[in-house]
Amino acid sequence: MLMKWIKCQVNEENKRSFSKAQEGWGELRHSAGFVGQIGGWNRSEPFEAGILSVWKDLHSYQIFMQHQHDEIFGKSDQGSTYTNISVDIFERIFNIGTTDITDFFGKGKLLRVADCSAENDKQAHFEQVQKGVWNKGMTPGMMSGAFGKRQYGRYLVVSLWDSEYLHQRYLDKELPALIKESGVKDTIQHITGSLIELHPKWAVI
């Protein structure tokens, strides 16, 4: 399964137009291999949109990009609404928790995303830490999550939350202990985080 992580920089005057265009991606539902898509605005970067799209496999995604993407994109005129875009594809390695994150698309309120990288000789340890310690850290309010990887030791860790209060409690009281227990700081070269306030009308499920 593939996770497509998209970030768009949008000027203040174009936020409404961008949002309206993002609502127009409902045609994705008819694409073979499409699983689901959610997105919204970054809490710490109010002019940055974050969108997570999930596909069954690379073949399905490539067919969509070759035959359907440009038509949908052109209809929306979304290209005129943002100043910069980054698109990264990750292969999902495992779920965080017992339920697939896409089962909760359209239900969560917040999407937490960590984009990080690890040195070659530390990647195996980093992956093991994610699979073991972080799953122990599943907490009330966290609905599900997923862990993905792409080339050059780059990883994407996503979690879906239904409660802003419980998410903040996790950050304040539980996350520091998990970081200490895992020793994950010793394996990460670089990390950037985003907290996306999900827009219900952007969801395609």
Blueprint of the fold:
Blueprint: E1 2-9, H1 15-22, E2 34-42, E3 48-55, H2 58-67, H3 69-76, E4 84-96, E5 110-118, H4 123-136, E6 142-150, E7 154-161, H5 164-182, E8 188-198
Antiparallel strand pairs: 1-3, 1-4, 2-3, 2-8, 4-6, 5-7, 5-8, 6-7
Word description of this protein:
This protein is of the alpha+beta class. It has a single domain, classed as Alpha-Beta Plaits. It contains 5 helices and 8 strands, in the order βαββααββαββαβ. It has an 8-stranded antiparallel barrel with strand order 1-3-2-8-5-7-6-4. Strand 2 and strand 3 form a beta hairpin. The longest helix is centred in the C-terminal third of the chain and has 19 residues. It is globular and about 50 Å long. The model has no long low-confidence stretch (mean pLDDT 92).
